[in-house]
Amino acid sequence: MTRLNAFSKTIILILLLALIALLQFEYDATKIMLPASGAQEISPFMVRLLDVGFHPAVASFLWATTMPEILDLWNKKTEYFSDLAFVNAVDPKLSYPYAFSVLTLPAAPSADDPQAVEQADAIGQQGIANGDTDWRIPYYMATNEFLYAKNDVAAAEYYNMAAETPGVPGYAERFSLNFGIETNQRQKTEQLWETIKDSTNDPDTQARAQAYIDHLQDFDYLDAASAQYKKVFGVFPTSTAELVTKGIIPSVPVDPFGFTFIIQADGTSAIDLNTLPAYMSTSTLQ
Amino acid sequence: MRNIWIIAKNTLKLEIRDKILYGIIVFGLLYVFFTLFLADLVLKEPSMVKAFGLTGIYFFNAIIALFLGTTSFFKDVDRKVVYFILSKPVSRMQFVLGKFFGLCMVLLLTSAILGVAYAGVVLYEHAGFDWIGLTAIAMQFLEMALFLAFAIFVSTFASSLLSIVYTSGVFFLGHIVSQLVTDAKAIGLGGIKLWLVEILYYIFPNLEKFDARDFAIHAVPAPFTSFALAAAYAAVYIILLLTAAVWIFDKKEI
Amino acid sequence: MVDFSHLTKAYKKRVVVDDFTLSVDVPIFGFLGQNGAGKTTIMKMIVGLLDPTSGTITIDGALSSHPIFKKKLGYMPETPYFYERMTGLEFLRFCDELFDNNNSGANPTARTSHYEGILKKVGIFAARNAEIRTYSKGMRQRLGFAQSLVNDPEYLFLDEPLDGLDPIGRREMKEVMLGLKHEGRRIFLNTHILADVEEICDEVGIIHQGKILYAGSVKAFCAGKPLEERFMETVQAHEKQETQI
């Protein structure tokens, strides 16, 4: 065989590559004619067996491929649920998939589907039972109960659960504890906690419910004091301290949750949003 | 035992010069930076970023340990480099221990390199400085040391290829041993068979206890006593394996 | 004085060294024999790489393979294999450190000159900082020889030291060995090259199938005939004896 120069050799290599590409193309054409292969090749059990303890990483990776399906929930709902179940089976403790599902299912395009909230709820329950402590699960469940199911009792209970979860960031804890304190909601919220308190024998739950009731009544108390002040002095007080110094109330009530009270421009009481009680986490991440 | 230190130091020096090791470390670092991309896929969820990162470090260290453990000792003996060493006032035990500690030092180095990269990625993704993650990496190192000891033990009587097979097998089995016992009970295995499975469970290297990744990722409070026991387990098992290795090597005709 | 006393090495199916008894007290002693005669096995037993099945080897009354005595030995294996990524100098330093003579701590520069001196002696000083994987066969032989000198040994055991060297190399190494003899060291060498034995050995041991057929002065053995002829005679006579038994 005669010696080939570098140019000829390159041409031959390129031609061979082209032939390879052509063969690949032809092969793909034949595959289209065959029926699609069956569903899951491996079960979660096998994955757990083979991944030498890499459960969180494998589950996380599977989750990464599952998450986008929520964008097309109209068409991919069953797929999404089965993939989510797979992820949960590989690593039941990974809390993010549960939390994400609870948050987005009701808000996703098939939200007209009344089952969405119940399905989210079911996933949330699973997450609370099996997953790591993650404040987001009860928090998002509470939001769902409030916004979609209009079930304030359940919402209050879940917000409370979120507030009590270790690692809950300050802003979320504050929001949870102050669910339903607006003047027009307060009565209802108080009744809500009274119901919860009466429906249980557990002293801890009763004490907790009482804390909420006291918290709400503090607002009522300060509102009344502020109105009284207006009557006497013609203007609303600028701070709760003034109520004391001017003799309207003996002392500022101590909030069971440690919040600081302020008097707003319209004379109603509120909590100071510029500070957080010392025991709360100031981090903005989980 | 000065000779052990001399051989260990020399092993470290030589393995660092090995291009294959460089290749694996480069891949390892590439992977750690790849987790930045994976992080975006999961919307930067911290538990998942840590999962990807710690698992990657573990995986690459395991490959390095497998590669070093099954070849370093074996090559020295097979290629008769040991003739120079054992003809001097160096005992076979000192040689085995020197190789073991030298390879441990290499793994310490790779763990440190990948660990720093990991801490950097986690910090960059604003997931805080991950102390428990570093504990996980330390536990992984203990597992790798045990792994190395096993590989050296097998090298005293098997060729490189066979060592790789045995050591990989132990690695896989070591992570599912508990599951196997549960399964045996679930399928109703009883009597002597179950007894045998349980005996196997107690003496076969059970590597699951070194998995502090779960604690790091799932932020479950870390049980110090468990880690201490795991360290003790590793120490004793390593002593067992190296003792057996020395005994076998002592009898070996070279 | 090196004493081999009923030295035997037997593997499952064959006896490689057979009731070997010998006393040697000369500067340069050569083990001469065909390939597979047992010369390497004997040398490995001297330096403790192999354990004898029975019998002992003592040097000045002490077991040769004892760690204390090993400090006084130098050994060069047949076809030396090295850590390819070390340099010649690094390798010598590594070998020296294993002797635990507290030398390397003392004065590193002095020690380095010592190694360089050895490398000059064997003729590979120029390659001292090159990685061993770049060394030729001849250079490796020389390095193998060099490392045997690193601890200033009283006794040297060299297995086929001139193997793979070109004629000039062989001349140079023989000069080195004669130089070592004049320094008062004792050398044992394995070889299957008759000419080398004639040139530098004071005494020779003819080894065949693990047995010693003759041990003594080369001249006395030759008795006027060429060494090759005498060697063939001795071996054939022995084999005849064996078949008759």
Account of the 3D structure:
Chain A is mainly alpha-helical and 286 residues long. In chain A, 62% of the residues lie in helices and 2% in strands. Chain A contains twelve helices and two strands; from the N terminus they run ααααααααααααββ. Chain A has helices at residues 6-32, 44-50, 55-66, 73-90, 95-104, 115-130, 136-147, 152-164, 170-177, 183-198, 203-233, 240-245; strands spanning 261-263, 269-271. Chain A has a two-stranded antiparallel sheet. In chain A, α5 runs antiparallel to α6 (115-130), α8 runs antiparallel to α9 (170-177) and α10 packs antiparallel against α11. The longest helix of chain A is centred in the last third of the chain and has 31 residues, at 203-233. The radius of gyration of chain A is 30 Å and the shape is elongated. The model of chain A has no long low-confidence stretch (mean pLDDT 84). Chain B has 254 residues and is mainly α. Chain B is 82% helix and 0% strand. In chain B, α2 packs parallel to α5 and α6 runs parallel beside α10 (224-251). The longest helix of chain B is centred in the first third of the chain and has 33 residues, at 46-78. The radius of gyration of chain B is 20 Å and the shape is globular. By secondary structure, chain C is of the alpha/beta class. Chain C has helices spanning 39-46, 67-70, 88-97, 103-106, 108-122, 137-147, 167-182, 194-200, 218-222, 227-244; strands at residues 2-10, 15-24, 28-33, 54-59, 62-63, 73-76, 155-159, 186-191, 203-208, 211-217. In chain C, the strands form two sheets. Chain C has a six-stranded mixed beta sheet with strand order 6-7-8-3-9-10, with helices on both faces. A four-stranded antiparallel beta sheet of chain C has the order 2-1-4-5, with helices on one face. In chain C, β1 (2-10) and β2 form a beta hairpin. In chain C, α3 (88-97) packs across α5 and α5 (108-122) packs across α6 (137-147). The mean pLDDT of chain C is 89. At the A-B interface, α2 and α3 of A face α3, α7 and α9 of B.
